[in-house]
Amino acid sequence: MLATVPTTIDHAGSWALARLSADGRPFPALVSGDRALDLSASSALGQPSSTRQLLDRWDDALPVLDELAGSSDGWQPLAGLTVLAPVEPRQVFQAGANYRTHVIDIAVAHADGSDGRTVEQVRADAAAEMDTRLEHPPYVFQGLPSAICGAYDDVVLPSDGKQPDWELELAAVIGRRARRVSPEDALDVVAGWTIVNDLTLRERIFRKDAPALGADWLAAKNSPTFLPTGPVVVPRAAVPDPGDLRLTLRLNGEVMQDESTKDMLFDVAHVIAHCSSVATLLPGDLVLTGSPAGNGLPRGRLLRAGDRMDSTITGLGAQANRCVDE
User: Fold this and answer.
1) Looking at the chain, which residues constitute the CATH 3.90.850.10 domain(s)?
2) Average of pLDDT values for 244-260?
3) pTM, to two decimals
């Protein structure tokens, strides 16, 4: 573990939802700066043993959480507690190629010149393709909850992986069961927001033995610890507009990603609405909304053991993950 005992978590609003551990016992908690409140003993909440239980009845739990956050009883220092991933979703939805600059950079990185196009032509073609994509639904695939780890846990680089890369993303945490919700109503099913780093083994995205089958996201995305999540869920009321949040990822102190959610091709509401048109969204599910430009592959710099990633999104706290060999 890199930093499982932070002394404080900076977040928007007066409180955030967390999943903490003391002496190996995980419990749902409120976090307010440098303080934590164990919710597992709260009779008003039904003594929940997990954050999922709270998210399963979020509309009822939210006013109680607001009230508890204003009380002075039962709080303890955050220091000394282990910060776990704040949610245990049943489903993880992952939007791909949803930032304009990112799509262009990836297109250039994958171009080998065999088609005779210059770099400028590749960029222009990628930009034109994005205009066409707006006529169709967002591109979304599914990930595995087993890939999730905490915001301060080590990221394990697979021994057979060749091109591990970072992808910082804003994630919506679903707070209501939802099916076929409209874009206009989509944010109403969001309980809150969290940070996810959606790591990828770039060399496994496209299989040379089966090119006609498309991207192999199972192999590329789902190695254990490849979804650092958290540290907290910040309630939607504290960050009501996800349309202009800053995502910043530093590798060993050097800024790699630094972009606003304004650069999204499809906004958060449209991504959620599309997911709900295909599947039923369940409380506690994660909907990842894509990663901005600044990934490692276009830079020719991929992750290796000893690297440290520090990630922030406006109002949602910070992650700090060290890379280690399997």
Assistant:
1) 92-325
2) 98
3) 0.93
